[in-house]
Every structure is written in C-alpha cells, then in structure tokens.
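User: Hi! Is it possible to get a structure for several chains at once, not just one? Here's what I have:
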Amino acid sequence: MAYRRFIDKATPIVRTILPAIGGDLSPRVLPSQAANLVRALRHQPLTTARDVISPYHSLLQRWLPSDLTRGPVAAFAAHAGVGPTVPGGALFAFWQAAYHLFGQWHGRGGAQNLTDALVARLASLGGEVRCSAPVARIEAPTGRVRAVVLEGGERIPTGNVITAINPQTALLHLLDPPLGGEIRADLAAARRSNVVQALVHVVTGDILGLAVCGRHRRRREL
Amino acid sequence: MVVGAGHNGLVAACYLARAGRQVLVVEALDRPGGGSRTEETVPGYRFDLHSAAHNIINMTDIPEDLDLAGVGLDYLEMDPFSVAVHADGRRVRFFRSVDATVESIPKSPPLKRWPTGASSTRRHR
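Assistant: Yes, the chains can be modeled jointly so their relative placement is included. Here is the combined structure:
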C-alpha cells in the first residue's frame, strides 16, 4: 500500500530531525541519529536524497498516486507555510509520520488549557504576569540590558530580558539601540513561519538555503 | 523579565522562577496565551484562535517536568487525528495506527457522487 510505504520512508527521517525539538543535538545523541539517517538512506540513497530536497508537490506525486491520501498529506504539509513547489518542502510532508509516532493532542476545552496551567504554575513558583503592558523599548545602552520601558511610561530596571515574541520586533524595534550591521540585515530578511518549519530549519538551513536568520553561526549569536 | 506571555514566554518564566529567579512577564494584550488562546468568538461557541493540536510540546518532557497536570492541564488524544472527506463521498480516517489508517482507505471507486460538489475538508491543526 502506497501510504504505508510512504510512512515507512518518512519515519526514520522524522526520527532523525526530532532531537532538534529539544535543541538536543549533543554528541550523546549523535550515534542514534547516525543510525536513523543510515536507516533513512539505506535503500536507494540517491532517491532518498532527492526526496528530502524535493518540493512536497513532486514528492507526493511520486509516493502517493491516489489523491485519497495525497491531498490530505499535502494539506498538512501546507501548514508549514511553504509553497508546494519550494525545494526542501518535502520534509513537511514527511512530518506526517510524526502524527503516527506521537499522535495529535488537544487540550481539554481548547488551547487555553495550556496557557491557564502555565499561568497557574508560574504563580505557584512566585512569578508574576502583567497584561495590558506593551513594551515600548528595551534599554541596552552599553550592550547590556538595563531596563524595560512600557508604553505607558513606566520604567522597570532589570539586568536580563528574554523576549518570547517575533525576534524582528524584539531586536529591530524594541531593543534600544537596535541590532546593527550584517546581523540586522539577516534578521530583517528572515521570513516568519511555524514551529514545524523552524525545527526543520535548524537541521537543514545551511543545506537548503532556508535559514531563519542567515547562517547558523549568526543564529547562535542571536 | 520576559516579554510576551505566550506559551514560550510562560514556559521560560516557569523554569526561571523554579531556579529561584524573580520573574516578571509583561504582555501587550489584556490576557496571556499568545498563540495558545481559546475565546468565545461566536456567542456560545469557543474557538482556538491559533494553535489547536499541541503535538510538539507532547514530544518534550515539559508538561511532566513542570507538573502541569497538577494545575489543570489535561490533554486528549484525537484518534483518528484527521478525517478527509473527498468530493465523491469517500473518506479516509487517519489513525495513530498506520494499519488502521491503511484499512480505512477505500479500495473501490465511489458508489455515488457527493450531492453538493463539496470539496475535501480537513481539520486544521
């Protein structure tokens, strides 16, 4: 059955890129990663290499002759925000195997369930959340963060800031002074996408020219 | 300080607080959650505004590590995780099990046309 053959093909590829989710590409996991890659490439290595760098449209045309399965798998691949003819997009179709490996999970009552639990946990650990508090700028006059200034004018001194927002907003608009030079140009040129694509970028960015922020070296600096 | 009270900012804040740091999360909107919010956008009906299926966090040990179940987090597995209804009425159910999925793929041509010309629909993640 074509669908089973496709999932059998995709599973070792997904297992190869999974450690990137936890940022875990340490030497400890490299042997098992190598084994997964060998499994992925064992049969017809040139064909597999071609599959991996393909757009997902042509990949699925080759692997899933029936539109009963090709259409749905393409629809999931499209969630990555990459067009069907973009080279390297095949990985987002191979991601189908992850749903079979891990299932799909929904919070009871919706995605809010996760947020409510995190807010409750943070409160239990002594942390605080302030809403309706948009940031105007992050002061870092000497290259070290000194304070966060809210749009309402309040200035909150702090030595450390983590931004969990669009990095372009954080580093090009809020950071004062903003990033400059080549890193600024790389970041300004980066495209936003979803998390599945981001993790694939971590692994394949240099090969496929799909890097989020230019070269890996710069991304680590960011 | 953490800027942004989406799930990423909140997870970072939890780990910092657990490590003994004094943590303040600031959020531009009037409620936390970012891409992980559910709101009554139509009276009587609550919708996820962005994320729906939380797959990748369930590939990590974060929920267990922070004991999020202890503060109300409850994940339900969708199985089948997706159902594709084709224009001709044939359906494929995508189960966690590859065997069950393959079993659900129709082997024969459609018996009747779908009356309204509806196109394939998919559940969004």
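Residues 2-71 of chain B form one domain. The mean pLDDT of chain B is 89.

User: Great, thank you!
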